[in-house]
Task: structure prediction
Amino acid sequence: MKRYLQPINKILLLATPVIASSMLAASSTQAATLGTSEATFNIENFNRNPLDIRTITDAVTNTISTDGQVITNANANANFNADPNALTFASNSSTSKAQGEGLSYLGEGQSFAAVLGYDFLVQPGETFSFDFNGLLDLKTSIDNPTTENATANGLLTFELYDSGSNRLLDSFSIVGSLATPGNDDALEVQQSGSITLDPTQTYFNKSFGGTQEIAQATVKGKYSRTFDKSTYLTLIESKTNQVRVQAKVPEPSTAFGLVLSCGVFTMTWKRKHKATTSVLTQNS
Result:
């Protein structure tokens, strides 16, 4: 199990960014803010079964309100079904939402979900393949740019490693960010050569600037790679979703994020956490 720790720790570190609050000027009128970050991913039609699987979910929220109302919500779900005698598939979802109204408040939410499959065995000259589809959806909205802001960030990624050497072989990622107001808006997709996207079912939609912004990506594709020697493979798919809304916060928020230690999440705010591991027997 020790050889799994390097890729696991690498991917889990993606869930530790810090969301820092900032002071905003006073406002004499009430207004509303909204931030949402959602992601889903499904993997199916594996032509190999893993020997071992794991799923990880975590979520945390933080709220401060001195003159207003703020609601935050963060949820994550993950499932990996790898019965050698049945259909093998993996899926997960992660959602973070925050909305506020009033003169002085802060709301933050962050969620994380991952599925991990260990030791897919591929013999010399054989191909490892699977199909996938996913969605990343970010939205922000404010009423008063001088006293409010809303941010939404999302990262969806999968990576394939050589289990023996922990060497990264292939990867795919969708990264999105919205900052309202501001210019830190982006929506990017990166993929290695073994990944093919279906152009008829892959869409990107973004609207940057103003008091309402969106960044959306829907993808469907296939992973396929042929190996020239016997190789055990580790597949890690994960997603992190973050939101923050605020108006005239009287004090900066402390560092906010998912704190990881040896693959275990620890929280200082309200949180939900679940990790499961299963050991499977591969068909000969």
In short: The chain has a mean pLDDT of 82. The longest strand covers residues 89-122.
